[in-house]
Amino acid sequence: MTTIAPTERAEVAAACQRLAAQGLLIGTAGNVSLRCGDLVAVTATGAVLAEVIADDVTVVDLAGQVVAGRYAPTSELGLHLDVYRTYATQAVVHTHAPKATAIACVLDELPVIHYQQLLLGGATRVAPFHPFGTVELADAVRTALQGRQSALLANHGAVTIGASLDDAAESALLLEWACALYLDAMTIGRPRELTEQQQAAVVEVALRTGYGTRKPLDKDTE
């Protein structure tokens, strides 16, 4: 069996502190996990996420059995494990971020109104409401995440995934920004959505120019 190093448990704790500082994790509301092979480091139930340290992070196997840690894992463990069993992702972040949750109380889908949302895979679907910690909620989130890096949970919050914990955290921040943007735009009028053709054009330009990646200057141009 794979072992999870203290540094990986510390990475989960650091992500919690970062997201709490940004206002996305409030009190004990939310949970974060990081997969390492056949083990998962995940926040404990009842943990004050702004104060989590590595020793507070629980380690489970993919069947949900605790293999290390002092506390029971989050009540949303099933949701995290369901995502790992279905998608090739290494991290899951679940927040009750205020702007994302507000959108999830109203819309059935957050449309693409800014091209940065394409980093999340496009429009963010809203999974139907089910009580927390249930198989039904895990199923709904898994479906909403298909082909996406983010999902909203009706009247509940948001979930983002990523190839690393940094990626999943960045997606959570981006989703909250996109939700805030939508809400701000709504104070003026109905936001104009980007068409599929416009989205495709953005993708083409991004791929052609290497948008979002650092490029060293050619020595001849320095």
TrEMBL record:
Transmembrane feature ranges:
none
- Tell me the leader sequence span: none
Per UniProt, the keywords (alphabetical) are:
Lyase, Metal-binding
Name all Class II aldolase/adducin N-terminal domain ranges: 10-183
**Which InterPro entries does the record match to this protein?**
Aldolase_class_II_sugar_metab, Aldolase_II/adducin_N, Aldolase_II/adducin_N_sf
- Which branch of life, at top level? Bacteria
Instruction: Kindly name one Pfam family recorded for this protein.
Output: Aldolase_II
Name of the molecule in the record: Class II aldolase/adducin family protein
Which species does this protein come from?
Nocardia vinacea
